[in-house]
Amino acid sequence: MLIDSTRITDRDRDHWDALERYDRMLAADPALDRKAESAVAEVRAFLDAGEAYVSVSWGKDSVVVAHLAALAELTVRVVWVRSVLFETPECDAVRDAFLDAHPQVRYEEIAVEMRNPKRGEPGYDTRHADPHADHQDVLRETLTGRWISGLRGEESRMRRMSIAHRGLSTKNTCRPIGRWDATHVFAYLWREKLPVHPVYAMTAGGHYDRRWLRVHPLGSAPPARSAVHGRDMDSWEDAYYGDVLAAARQARAHLWR
Predict the structure, then answer these.
(1) Any idea where the Phosphoadenosine phosphosulphate reductase domain is (predicted)?
(2) Which of 34, 62, 69, 198 fits as disulfide partner to 5, beta carbons 3.0 to 4.6 Å?
């Protein structure tokens, strides 16, 4: 269920409709049933070992994991760490649609002020992907305890290595869809009629691969040419969310004076 947005162009909608037909076909594959059953079992075993929560961004992966976790335990705790001013505004609609369909989950929202300059602000550090740089890791600073995430090995070599070495679950982390591809995620979203953030339809008519578009705090996109098969994510943000970024920069201008 694609959440609507005025940011989606006619070309975007045509491209999305074509991809959704592909999702519908994959949704009928019995292999998807087996993947979902295995993921629910992974979550259930993790929850049986102790209290835990689902960390969500309201992107495609975390919505799927929140749904799988709710199948494992109806009253599972779902937590969104929200970056003030920099979240895509449609996240609220995705959240509301999910919670309307899953009223039993225990939902918590934590608002976090961004401490460091974001892209377009004075002093922005382009080395935000460098673990030795002075950047703010919002999730690491905010979340504690045991958590369930939508992390998938397809997204990076390091994640694939971690899952291969440590498995889907460790003492404190559970990655039930760690071995899923994005095609499985979109097929599952279609099959279960789960809310889909419109960011995945914002492909400039297919120029961007929806598999690598992210729901993330704006102004902290990966460096150009990093994650989208050579596409410039800074330009993508400016094209689709330039107004949100401009408003956030204006609201924070006093911090850099």
Answers:
(1) 53-201
(2) 198
Q: Return the SS3 of 148.
A: strand
Domain assignment present for residue 188? The answer is yes
Distance of CA 35 to the CA centre of its chain: 19
Going by C-alpha positions, the residue among 239, 195, 184, 200 that lies closest to residue 17 is: 200
Residue 51's domain spans which residues?
10-256
Q: What gap in Å lies between CA 84 and CA 248, rounded to an integer?
A: 9
pTM: 0.91
Nearest to 102 by CA among 212, 193, 234, 33: 193
Return the sign of the alpha-carbon dihedral for residues 136, 139, 140, 142.
Answer: positive
In angstroms, the CA 252 to CA 214 distance is 24
Report the SS3 class of residue 231: coil
Q: Specify the CATH number for the domain of residue 49.
A: 3.40.50.620
Is the residue at 5 inside a domain? no
- 8 Å CB contact between 175 and 38: no
Do residues 195 and 98 lie in contact, with contact meaning Cβ atoms separated by under 8 Å?
A: yes
> Is 2 within a domain?
no
Please state, as a whole number, how many other Cβ atoms lie within 10 Å of the Cβ of residue 51: 8
| 148 domain-assigned | yes
- Three-state DSSP at 174 gives strand
Which DSSP symbol is given to 2? B
